[in-house]
Amino acid sequence: MKRLAAAALVAGGMLVGSVSTASGATLVGLSGGIVGPTGFYEVDAGDGSATFVQPEPGALGIANGGLDYLGDTLYVTNYSVSDSPFLYSYGTVNLSTGAFSSIGLHTGQWYGLAFDQSGGYFYTYDYNTSNLLKVTPGISTEIIGSVTGFTSPFGIRNLAYDDANDILYATDYYHQGVNLYTLNTNTGAATLVGSLGFDPIDYGGHVPIAYDEVTGTLFAHNAIDRSLFTLDTATGLASLVGSHPDLVFASLAVTPNAAPPVPLPAALPLLLSALGLFGFMGWRRKRLAAA
């Protein structure tokens, strides 16, 4: 009976552990080469470490472009087509080959790229006009409205979207501090969430963000101390995850391979049968004792 009870406990332990286990997120970071080689990196959301994947495509590169997935396809903005005059393209990148496929052109720089997965469109911030845009790839570009209500004189620089709760997050330019906002997706109006708590600086930088739908985590990269953080979506306050001291990322995206919680394992029948046998033997002992 002790062995049966132990078997039941082992099976039960396997069951509880599997229900609560979810795979850690992996992010993709795009480095513009300010520090470290340009290109795409795989970033471990557990410790912030980064591994080189592919070089930045194109002779002119990607100028602080936005980065996000629609399904399994990675999209970018600000792929430089020409620098005289300035002309950019948005499209997809194959991380296995490094190839960029253009979908459409834009003359202004589009900072941030955040997909609404169910709608099949992304939000981006047009730096030249200060407008929030809604882009359905290859189909349409809609002006939502001018982004107002942010405190930085340099505007919004990065976006991330929480599909489950329909929340569009944004960070402004890192200069004398940096803040987290939510943006109204109907008007473009910004609402301050709070300061990230980074040290004030006299020069600027981007703070790319990315939202993990599986864990409900908002990630951010601090280009000044070259570290990965998580952000409190209620206050904006940043908590350190880990550093990648030789890299500065202009944009981040959560890869779509983060698995949901693992379903009940094959150990479930073992648990049920062990508990059933355990109960039967207890009943049999009571019957023999009464005889």
How would you characterize the overall build of this protein?
By secondary structure, this protein is mostly beta strands. It has two domains: 2-15 and 265-290; 25-254, TolB, C-terminal domain (Neuraminidase). It contains two helices and 20 strands. It has helices spanning 2-20, 267-290; strands at residues 26-31, 39-44, 50-54, 67-70, 73-83, 86-93, 100-106, 110-116, 121-126, 131-136, 140-146, 156-162, 167-172, 179-183, 190-195, 209-212, 217-222, 227-231, 238-243, 249-254. It has a four-stranded antiparallel beta sheet, with no helix packed on it. The protein has a four-stranded antiparallel beta sheet with strand order 4-5-6-7, with no helix packed on it. Strand 8 and strand 9 (121-126) form a beta hairpin. Helix 1 (2-20) runs antiparallel to helix 2. The two termini are 21 Å apart. The model is unreliable at 1-23 and 258-272 (pLDDT under 50).
